[in-house]
Design a protein that fits this description.
single chain, alpha+beta, 8-stranded mixed sheet, 3-stranded antiparallel sheet, 10 helices
Amino acid sequence: MIFEHEIPKGSRLYFGKTAKKKRELETKVSQFFYESGFEEVITPNFSYSQHQSIENERKLITISDEQNEQVALRADSTLDVVRIITKRLGRTTTHKKWFYIQPVFTYPSNEDYQIGCEWIDHDNIGDIISLTADILKELKIEPILQISNINIPKVVTQELNIDIELFKKGEIAALFELKVEWLNRLLRVKSVEDLKSAIDFAPKSVKTELEKLLHTVLKIEYSNIVISPLYYGCMKYYDDIYYRVIEKNLVLCNGGSYKSEGMNSLGFALYSDNLLKVLED
């Protein structure tokens, strides 16, 4: 039995102090974006291209439009932002730095608010990670910044002829059971020193991507960094350096490098609900 005051499981309700804190968070971060040269965009809730963003398409909430084409509720903002700016609005703006504040929706009725940005046609990953770190400092928190390289698991699977699903599912025990010394070293990497040591033992095919990861980390001014070379992100489009921000088992942010519309771009999304929990603590 469903009572008339109930809301679907996974949906969001903000009121009173919670609504005020959410608005204050959005205002503070949006002001930071404006001062950093970003402009705001709000994309449609419905999209034709969400299947290109989400690894598990069963998480999409879909309907059909009047021409019987599949439409999905927005489950991710990144690719839609890039396409709308470069294609639909390409004749009216050449601006490359955009931010958004809007919810995403996943099956069956999950709703999550995000504050995110896309830096279109820009490929210096250090710039976007530093921007994320500056926002965290502005919010006066210092959670873990976990930095990875999506290409490393891909190259390792080719080198050892193993299934990429081992990395997608985080099957660490199964990877240790392979008893490959250089792989075991990579599995234990957390710090710059660990990574430097692992590079010395890695095969040439893996070494190049490890060195790219090291070069990125050395440029970031942030004290709470953890390096995870074998972590594999859940978004389809990230294809190079990838990072997460984590506090008390809550993911506060995902971001990284990707290609869209023939351009290298950068972006990240802050998860408002998890951020509010951490800020309240």
